[in-house]
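Q: What does the assembled structure look like for these inputs?
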Amino acid sequence: MLELKPMINALLRSKIGAVLLLIQVAITLAIVSNAAFMISDRLTYLNQETGYDEEAIFSLSVSTFDPSINLVQQYAQDERDLRAIDGVIDAAMTNWMPLSGSGSSSSMHLVPNPEIGTGVRAAYFTTNEHMLNTLGAKLIEGRNFYPEEVVHADNYGKLPNTTIVTKDFAEELYPDGSALGKVLYQGEDAVEIIGIIDTIKGPWLNDSRPANVVIFPFNLSQPRTGFLVRTEPGKRAEVMAKVEELLLKSESRRVFYGIEGLDESKASYLARDTLVMRMLVVLIVVLVLVTALGIFGLTLFNISKRTKQIGTRRALGARKSAIVRYFLIENFLVAGLGLVIGAALAVLLGQQLMKVFSLPSLSFTFVLASAVFMLIMSLVAAWGPALRAAKVAPSIATRSI
Amino acid sequence: MLWYYVDLSWRSFKRTPLVSILMVIAIAIGIGITMTTLSVYHMMSADPIPSKSEQLFALQLQTMDEGEGWFTKDDIPYQLTFKDAQRLMTDAKGDAQAAMVRTGFAVHLGDESNAPKLMDARATGRDFFSMFNAEFIHGGPWSQSDEDNAVNKVVLERSLSEELFGETNPVGKTVFLDKFLFEVVGVIEPITEHTKYYDLNNGAFRRAERVFYPFSLVKELEIGTWGNSNGWKREMVTTFKQRLDSEIVWIQYWVQLDSPESKANYEQYLKGYIQEQQKIGRFARKEPKYSLRDVNQWMEYNEVVSEDNKILVLLSFMFLAVCLANILGLLLAKFMRRAPEVGVRRALGASKTQVFVQHLVEVGLLGLFGGLLGILLAQLCLWGVRESYSYYSALAKMDFLMLASAPIIAIVACILAGLLPAWQVCRTNPAYYLKTQ
Amino acid sequence: MIKMNNINKVYQTEMVQTHALRDFNLEVEQGEFIAVTGPSGSGKTTFLNIAGMLEPFSSGTYELDGIDVGKLNDNQRADLRNQKIGFIFQGFNLIPDLNLYENVEVPLRYRGIKSAERKKRIERCLELVGLGARAKHLPQQLSGGQQQRVAIARALAGEPRFLLADEPTGNLDSLMARQVMEILEEINREGATIVMVTHDPELARRAPRNIQVVDGQLADFSLYQGAPNKQQTAGDIAARAAARAAEA
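A:
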C-alpha cells in the first residue's frame, strides 16, 4: 500500500517545506558527523592510558632562594622526610613532572656526534633509584639503577653513564631487537641502557611520541626542583595536606608550590581539550535538538496546511494508520535525501577542515552512524505530528473552508 | 509607518505566542552559541594595544648557521640570544626598545609578616613601561643610570603592592626577590588585560607579571629564565657566563618605531649589525634573515587564536544557519496562514512593498528579541567556559562590541531568513483569498 | 440500503447541548436518488456526515447494506467508507499536490487494488466525466466545474453502491451545475444510490425523491401520511416527474 510515486510527485510540487527540511537535515548531518568525529578523536586523546596510578601519585616543587643552603644534602634529607611520612610508599626527586606540560627533551643517537636529524627524540628526566617504584613503572627487561650509579651533584660536572628507557622508545630505537645493553649518545656523552620499562607517558600528552621517555640516574640538585611522591591508596589527600609544613620545618628559606595530584596535573594540562570537547558536545546536542524541533515544526506546518486533505483522505477510506504512515514515509523520504546530501557535505566539510586545520581525515563510519541516528531522530520528531494528523476528523471534508 | 508595522508585529506575536516563542528561542540558541565562540575568538584576536600596535615591533634574528632550520614557519627563532639583545639595547637605535625575559622569584619582605610567594617577574628595559602604555599609580620607571648600573629597583603591579604594603604608597620601601633586596620605585596597573602579547612563549593568555626589574640585573645577579630556551649549536654551556655568551635564544626583544622612516633606518641598522657579526663568524648563512613584526602580525605569527577556536567559530556559524532554516520554515507557516488577512490588506490598498516591509519589520523584531535572549544564553555559555577552563577566564567575556553585534547579527540573520516568506506572502493574489473567505 | 432508526446526534459544548438530529428515521432503497433540503443549521450536513460514517452518532441504529455501523471500529468504518461510499463535496476537496489521475487513484490505493486495474478504472471514470485528456493536470489548472467532475470521477472510481453528495453544485455557476447534475442523473440511471444535500430547490426538484430536514427531524411527513420512512412508490416518482414536466 505504499504510495511512493504520488507522494514523491506531491513533494516535488510543494517544494519549500521539503527543501527547508532537507537543508536542515543535510547541514546538521555535516556538522554532527564532523563534530562527533572530533569528539571521539578528542576522547581517545583525553582518555589515553598514562601508565601511572594517577590517584596515588602527587608532585610538589620547591624553590630554594638562599644560596648558602647545601642543596644536595637538603634534598636528600627531604626525600628521607617524605618517605618517613605515614602512608607514603616512595618518593624521588626529579627535574620534571609527568603529564604536566613542561619538561625537557633531547635527541638520542646511536653514534657519537652524528649528522643533524638522525636521532630519536625522547623526554628525559633526571632522578634516582627510587623513581621506578615511585612511578609504579614495571620493569620489563634489565634492572633498576644501583644506588651507587646515581650521580648526586648540583652541576653538570659529572654525568651518569646508565639509563632506563620505556619500551616505546626502545622499540623506536631498535625495532628489530632488544635495546638492552646498547649504548646511547647525547653528543659525545654515552649511556648504557640497563633497563626497559613498560609504557609511561612523558610530560606532553599531545606529543607525537608521548611515551618516549628516558630516565637518567642523576640527582641534579638545583634551586628549583621537584619531588614525586607515591602514597598508599586513599592516603594521598592526607599526605598532601601536611607535606609543605613538614618540609618547611627542616628548612624554611624556600617556597613550596605546585602540590598537586597527578590526575590534577593531567586535568589541567588537558583542560583546553576538555573544554573544546565539551563545547562540541553542547553544540551537537543543541543542534540535534534544534533540528528535531525544526522537523517537528515543519511536519506540523505541512499537516496544518493539509488538514482538509487529510479529512478528505479519511473520508475516502484511509485508516488512521495509513495517515500516520503517509507522513512518516514522507518524512523518511525527505530526511533520507537530506542525509544523502548531508553525507556528501560532511565528507566535503571534513576534507576542508582537514586541509585548513590539523585534523585527521573523517572516518565514514561516523557519517553513517550519525545518519542512522538522525534518521531515527527525524522519525521520532515526525511521530507526534503524524499522530496528530491521524486525529483529523473525516467530517472536516464536508466543512466548507 | 514604521511604528504601525511594529505595532502589527507585536499583535502578530501575541496572536501566535507558541510559534513566536519557538522562533525567538531558535534565534536565541543560534546567537547564543555563535556569540560564545565568537566572543572568545574576538577576545583572543583583538588588538591588545590599538593605539600603538603598528609602532611596536617584535624583533627576530636568524642567527643559525647555514643548513640549520628552526621550528617556526619562516625558520627564524622566536627569541634572541643574550648577546644580541644586550648589544641592540646598548646601541638603542629604535625610538624605544626593551629586551626582556620572564624570570621568577620568591617574593617576601624579609620578616615573618608574609610567607614568601613564588611569582613571575619580568626583567626588562625602562622603556618597557612607556612602550606598552603602563599606567603608573605611584612613582615611575627606574632611571637610565639605575639601568646602566644594574641597581636593584623594582616596579610592582598594584595588586601585589597592596598584598605586601596595603593601601600605602610603597615607593621607597624595600622588598626581597629571593635573597636580593630591591627598592620599589613605582606601582602600575596591570600591563595587559588578557593577552600577554609581549611574550607569547609560555601561553598567550597567561597573567602578566606583577614584578618588573632592570634587564641589566640578569647578568649582574645571574638570573635564569623561567621561559623557553632553545639552542642549535653544540657548545659547552655549564656556567651562567657561558650561557650569556652562547647561541642559546631566550630573550624577547621589542622595538618601538614611530614612523616608516625610523623603521627603514632601523632595518638599515640591523643589516649593518648582521654584516658586522658575520665578520666574527656569526650569522654564518648566505642571507641571514631578520624580522620586525608589529603587534598584530606577531599574534598572528604565534597563532594566538588556536585552531580549535577557529573550528568552533566555523561550526557555530553553520549552527546558526540551521537555526535560520528552522526559523524560515516557521515563518513560512506563520505568514502563509495569514495570507487571507494579507488579501484584505492588499484589497484595501496596501502595496506589495508595504506588505513586504511590514513582514520584514516583524521578522526584524523577532531577531531583536532573539538577539537579546541570545546574549543571556551566551553569557551562560561563557560562564560555563570560564568555570571549565580558568585559563580563559579573562577571555570568555563579551565586550561592548560583541554585546552590540549580537542583536545586529540576529536581526540581519532573521531578515535574511524572512526574505523568502515575506516575498511569498506579499505576492499572494488578494482575489484568491477574498473569494474563498 | 440505508436504514436509520431513531438516530440522535447531540453536540455537547461547555454551556449548551445542541440536538443536531432528533429521533431521525430514514430508509433508502437501492437505486434511489434522494435530494435532502432544509434551512441552514437544520442538520442536513450532520445527517450526511452520519450517513457517510464521517461522524459518530449519539444514539439509535444505522444499518448500511445490512451492516450495523454503530458496532464498527474506526478502521472498519474507514474500510466500509472506502468500499461502499463515494463522496462528492461542495468544496471538491481535490488534493492540490496530486494530479487528476492521482486524485482519482486515492480511494483505489486505500482499497489495495492492483496498479493495472486502477489504471483501467481511473481512465474510464475520467472519460466518463469528460476529462480523460487532462489526467496529468493539477486541480488548480481546472475550472470549478471541471474540478467537481474530477471529484465525481474519484467518487465513482471505487464503484460504490452509495453516493453521498454535499451541495455538489454549491460552488458552481448554473451552467456547470447543470452539467454536474446531468452526470449524477446518469450515474443514478446506471444503478447507484444517490443522496444529495442541497439548498437549491430547483436542483432538489430534479431528484425523484425529496426529503426535508427541519430542526434535526425529517419534515416531509405530509407527503407520506404517517409512514415517513416508507419507500415512495414508482407511482409517486412518475407523478412527480409529470408535475415537473408540466412546470417546465
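The mean pLDDT of chain A is 88.
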